Amino acid sequence: MKVYLDNAATTALSKEVLESMMPYMTEIYGNPSSTHSFGRASKSGIEHARKTISQYLKCKPSEIIFTSSGTEANNTAIKCSVRDLGIKNIISSRIEHHCVLHTVEEMEKAGIHIHYVNLTPAGLFDLEHLEQLLKSCEGKTLVSVMHANNELGNIMDIEAIGSLCKQHNALFHTDTVQTIAHMPFDLSNSNIDFLSASAHKFHGPKGVGFLYIKHQSNIASFIHGGSQERSMRAGTENVSGIVGLGKALQLAYDHLESDAVHMTKIKNYFIEKLQESIPDIEFNTNLNSSLFTVLNVSLPKEYNNEMTLFNLDIKGIACSAGSACSSGSNKGSHVLQAINHSPERKAIRFSFSKYTTTGEIDYTIEKLKELALAESI
Ligand SMILES: Cc1ncc(COP(=O)(O)O)c(C=O)c1O
Description:
- The structure is a single chain.
- The chain is an alpha/beta fold.
- It folds into two domains: 3-11 and 256-376, Alpha-Beta Complex (Aspartate Aminotransferase, domain 1), CATH 3.90.1150.10; 15-254, Aspartate Aminotransferase, domain 2.
- The chain has twelve helices and twelve strands.
- The strands form three sheets. The chain has a seven-stranded mixed β-sheet, sandwiched between helices. A three-stranded antiparallel β-sheet has the order 9-10-12, with no helix packed on it. A two-stranded parallel sheet has the order 1-11.
- Helix 3 packs parallel to helix 4 and helix 5 (127-136) runs parallel beside helix 6 (158-167).
- The longest helix is centred in the last third of the chain and has 22 residues, at 256-277.
- Pyridoxal-5'-phosphate binds at residues 69-71, 97, 99, 146, 150, 175, 177-178, 198, 209, 323, 325.
């Protein structure tokens, strides 16, 4: 049996998404910047996707620019705010994805003051500390914090964060790569200035994402060249990818509630079975405020073995120790360090999708039990 429980790293491309993309990889191949009919057909695919996104997120189509990834969207928001909007301070957190964390570190080298908001014992942003930081910052400030953490699944109160930003006249960028397409957004009524997303996290293709830029936020292009994306992002567009992104978002929002119910059931079932089978299990995810897609657990000592993930993989189960992007590094997870996770215990992130079944959870539980027996011998 093959069980894929690494959906926070990436998701399977849905068949309907692939079907929507195919014509743009075969017969509709014009350059979207060309003014002839071939070009216009490609352009129309892009604009349809932009309109779809703006309708679901309740913003203007012109506030969406397509990027090559969530990483590029995050880099654009942070670097261009610093370059174009006179940002002197950035408030971020120690549990951001590396594409935010490392970008913020680069900004520090360029002379920007960086502050990190504390976490509460529950693994959420400490809003009182955020307010203190906002009060103490001199000069223009950008707050760049994630909506949900990719290793823990913990969801942050971006509405409250947005209100604090507004109160203190700070700009607000949020990395919603793990939450877009899993919950409703209303950008017409929010204090979010920049928001980043990535198609491959919601059954869309890899290598395409978008950045929402509130219309008053006058940043210029991060990538220079042609005048694509209303001169906001040069480079010939990934037409089929953008079309796939739009389709994936539409499918997600068409089934938002039923998919959420399904994944919540899966996550709760897994929690229950884990507690029954491995009584000493601990949950690193905040079970009261987290996404239904992610469950990060600490296995008891008998699993304290670097081979656990490998052994699960041999049994056909794909899960991870944390973020896929950090898997090449031997430093361990910066997120687990930030929540003071004991290095004595093995942390594993299981992450679900609308395709995950209870049968797959039963199989995973069975294999985890077998592993504990094997490792304790
Ligand atoms: C929270 C978060 N931000 C950003 C990214 C980067 O997105 P992309 O893979 O599209 O570059 C990821 C991907 O793992 C993520 O989980």
